[in-house]
Structures are given as structure tokens and as C-alpha cells.
Amino acid sequence: MNSTQLPGSGPPPRSPARDTLRDMWDSRPLRPRDDRKLAGVAAAIARRYEIDPTLVRVGFVVATIVGPGLPLYLAGCAVLPDAGRPGGPPPQRSGPSSALSVTLLVLAALLAVPLVLEADRLIAAVVTVALLVLLHLARGNRPGAREAAASATPLVPWTTGPHAPTAPVATTGTPPAWDPLGVAPFAWDLPEPGPEPAPPPAPRSALTPVTLAVALVVAGMVGGVVLAAPGALPPSAVPGAALAVVGIGLVVGAFRRAGRWLAPFSVLLALVTAVSIPFNDAVGPDGWAVRGGIGEAVAAPATVAELAPEYRRGTGSVELDLTRLDLTATPQAAGPVRTRAEVGVGSVLVRVPPGADLDVRGSVGTGDLTVDGQTRSGQDVDLTVADPGPDGPGGRVLELDLRAELGTVEVVRG
Hints:
InterPro entries: Phageshock_PspC_N (IPR007168). By secondary structure, the chain is an alpha/beta fold. The chain has 10 helices and 6 strands; from the N terminus they run ααααααααααββββββ. It has a 6-stranded mixed sheet, with no helix packed on it. β4 and β5 (374-387) form a beta hairpin. The protein is elongated and about 120 Å long. It starts with 15 loop residues before the first helix and ends with a strand.
């Protein structure tokens, strides 16, 4: 035998993963000139796989937030050919890469370097690429999808109807006004041509109102749980539940080519959810909310046992009067007395006994910080003060950890 191949053995098996990637490359779509917001990458992917471009654009925005969105978009600009102007020469889908494509690929590679260095962003990048591959496997071979992507225009199937061609009709008689030379006697008995009838309006999808109604019902149910069982769910769960329902509606609408008006509602609900997170409440040991919330929080514990380990407000103020605390060191009561106070936007005011031994760690994102007569102002202000008081060391140390993101922090004696 002249061949080294064993009798009965076939060609080496082909790798399914390699075949899938090769098919994705060979059938990559053109970036259309119409319906594009930036470079047409989202519109090209949407036409290739017959989904709503709004979903693809939202997906790129989400991917940009978690990490791989921008390098993937730049890579799409480089590898997906531009459809060119209408009526121009067909684009080159193969051949040497242009300088712009090479530049975009290099820039995408540089932006992708941090994705490899951070585990969470690397996971997000792998998940995003896997979703693209699954999309190709699920919808890559749909009838007409490849042709629509190659021509950068959706295919319009041929249908029969009032404007479909009809067979010639033989007739005799006087030529009508539209045929004075009598060259088309077979069509003389046809009615005079009139204006093209307007196409019937497409039926409006009920996806948007139904999704919003379900979101409202779900948000109401979650709100009832928040009010009936304090602490079981945070208040931010109310807009979060509505956002989840609207997100499901967007995914369903992408495959049904409906529900585009859900996109602005999703953005609004996302903003409301983000803003409401700092206001999540939980009841503290002394009966008032210490884990966020809005308004004033005032506490004046008479004993060390009544002092909560933490006081917090999302927006408002925290005022602690610790002047009645007994900080005398005894064999039964020794060691420092600790508490923490924090506000997102507002003020923190702590009054301490005149002779207390203080160990204060204060910080302000933007605002003013005053501890025992020492003042700092500006952005990212930090101040640590260890002051035994006017009578010198003695007694239990009062340790305070105070923080305001935007506002003031003040510690005064007396």
C-alpha cells in the first residue's frame, strides 16, 4: 500500500468548536449604514441573528459596565465589514486588513488586558463570549439570516396579493387613454391604474403594557412584604422587582421584535433602585433604624450597655450625646468603649464627656471634619486624634469611628 492510512479508517474527526468559530467568521454580517447608532455593530448582529437591535445595544451597555463591552465593540468594528454607501461597490469580506482595522484590533487588545488581570472581569468576558457563541448556535442557521447579513438589508419574502403579477387577459375594443397606440390590447379591460393602496398598519404588540402591568403588580406585592414584615426585604427590593420583570419583558420582546418602549422604563427603574439602596433600613438595638434611612437620628444612651455598636443614616443626620456615659475603669468594666456612626449625605455630631480619653478616627468624602478643636476641610479628608483629655489618662478609652460621604463630622466635649 502506498498510503500510511490504515484500511477502513476515515479522515480525522473535525472539532465542533473549530467548525463553529469558522462558521461565525465566514458568515459574519456587514455593518449597515441605516439603523446604526455608532458604527452599526449592534445592528449587524441583530440582523444576522434576527433579534431586536435594542436588546443587542442594551447588552453592549451592560457588558461595558461589567468589563468587556468596549473592547468587544471595537473588535466588531474591525472584523465586521462596512456595507458601504447604497449603490456603491460591494464591500470586501476578505483580503488584507486595513490600517484602521489593525489599529482598532490593537486598541481592543490593550483595553482587554485589564480583563485578564481581574478575576471578576475575566469571568464577565468569558460569559459574554459564550453568550455570543450560543446565540450563533441557536439562531445562526435560520432561513434568510445569512442572506440578510450579507446584503446588510432584511430580506422581504415574495408574497401573493393584489399587486402580484397576473396572466394576460385577451380582449378587443377601443384602446383606452393610457394606451393610445394600441400596443397592449390584452389589458384594455383592466381598470384605470390608481394610487398604490397604503399598507395596513401593523398590529400593536401588547407586550409593553402587559409587562408594565405585571411589573406594577409584582412591585406592589414586594412592597406589601416590606411594610408587613420590616427587615425581611429592603425597600430597594420594590423597584428591583419591577426592574427584573421589565428585563424579562425586554428579552422576550427582542425575539418578538416588540417592547422597545420598555428600554426607558428599565433605565428609570435601574436609577431608582440604585438611589434607594442607601436607604435600606434595619431596626437597631435601641428601636430606630441604624442601617440607612432618611431623617434625623438622635440617641443619648445613659449606660455603656445602651450604646449601639453602629449608627447609620443614608440621608440626614446622626446626633449622639454620650456625656452621661460612665467611663470609670473598674475590675468589672475595663477596656475601650466603641461605637461607629456614618451618614451618606448629612452630618454626624458626637458630644463626649469633658474628661473622656478619646481615640477618634474621622473621615469625610467631601465636607468638613472637626475633632476636639482640630478642623479639616475638602475632599477625602481623614483625621485621627488620640487625646487623653484635660485631666490626663485615666478611665476607659472612648473609641469613635465616624464617616460622612458628603457633609460634616464633628466631635465636641461637654
